[in-house]
Amino acid sequence: MQAFFRIPFFRLLFVLLLCLQPFSARAASLIRDPDIEQALHRLATPVLVAAGLNPGRIQILLINDKSMNAFVIDQNHIFIHTGLMLRIKSAAQIQGVIAHEAAHIANGHITQRIVLADGISAVAGIGIILGVAIAASTGRPDAGAAVAAGVASSAQRSFLTHTRAEEASADQSGFRYTASAGVDPAAMIEVLNLFKGQEVLGTSRQDAYVRSHPLTSQRLRAARGFAAAYGGNVKDSREADYWFARAKSKLAAFLQNPQAERRKLKASDTGEIAQMVRAITYHRQANANKALSAMNSVLAARPNDPYYRELQAQILMESRQFDAALGAYAMALNGAPKNAIIMAGYGRALLAAGGSANEAKALNVLIKARALDGQDPRLLRDLAVAYAKAKQPGMASLVTAERFALDGKFKDAAIHAKRAADQLPHGSTGARQAQDILFTAERLEKKGKNRN
Fold it and tell me: Which residues form the signal peptide (predicted)?
């Protein structure tokens, strides 16, 4: 599991309008884990299809935040807080949440906001602005200086907050999508009941979901009516329940107290998910032998599962067993050859193993991973190291500039972009990219200083 990154930005110049502020590492961060993401993709697919959306174009991402929330800010991403994921009790409940957010996309509730963001962006493509959404949804923007000029924080909230009419529309569509997908529509009522009564609280005491999704007694009554009207054709949920349990258990094992998570397991529970939890919690307590022993039990049950193999590779890698980690990553990548997170891990292991052959191979692997997912700061950091070892300092500086730009560190991005522009051949693609980053970074850094 890759976690605790600062959130990368997208629609970069949108910051100029919505007063984006940088976040500390303790604020909100993306959790990138190939197993959890593929499980969420499996759970989302039937409801996205029912909504008339392409599951291949919509990514379900987790934000490491203890508050309960879920939201959309564009047509390609649905964000779910870990706080909500850990409170939800069934696959049908998370599918209901996804269906509701998918309805906001399908019903065009964010189209005008996206048109605005794209229309004013002269440098779209440098990164992904999640910060605007996080500032509004968590209510915890960092107290540091804003990196760009913009309007008051109320504009941030308005970007995320849906009207009551939009919520009613999304509710009805979401219940229809779940029913069409064979998911029990009543599960979404169970989710809404988690927030019941919060409408009478002050804004500062309300959960993030209620701030962005107005919840009233009238809405709850209407939602119960939708659930009753669309219910009745529920399909076998055993497969969905398995993937939900696997994703939630892995998330809890990494985020919660490791001893507490192990104590929840019965001694007689030797199933793969229980053994996975033991492996992760022992690993977090630096007990590599017990962690790897538990992973052997997991892999005995599912020897060809690339995501379990990736977890084994992570444990080996972080236990500094680099050669064994290489073998595990290679097996994982063989089973999921287009997974950028696994590919990046393999490249990282090659760099850690060392040697000219491994380092040359790492560069090729990381270049391919970047082509699949260029928004991963850790991947970019490793790619810069690989370029440096290959004696390509210009490309190392360019990739480092991209990483700092994605992280909102525009002053550092400008320094490395200038270095890259000076080192790369004049007129080359890399040199032009460096100039673009330099121009944008200097512009945003200047606006940040003017604002202060």
Answer: 1-27
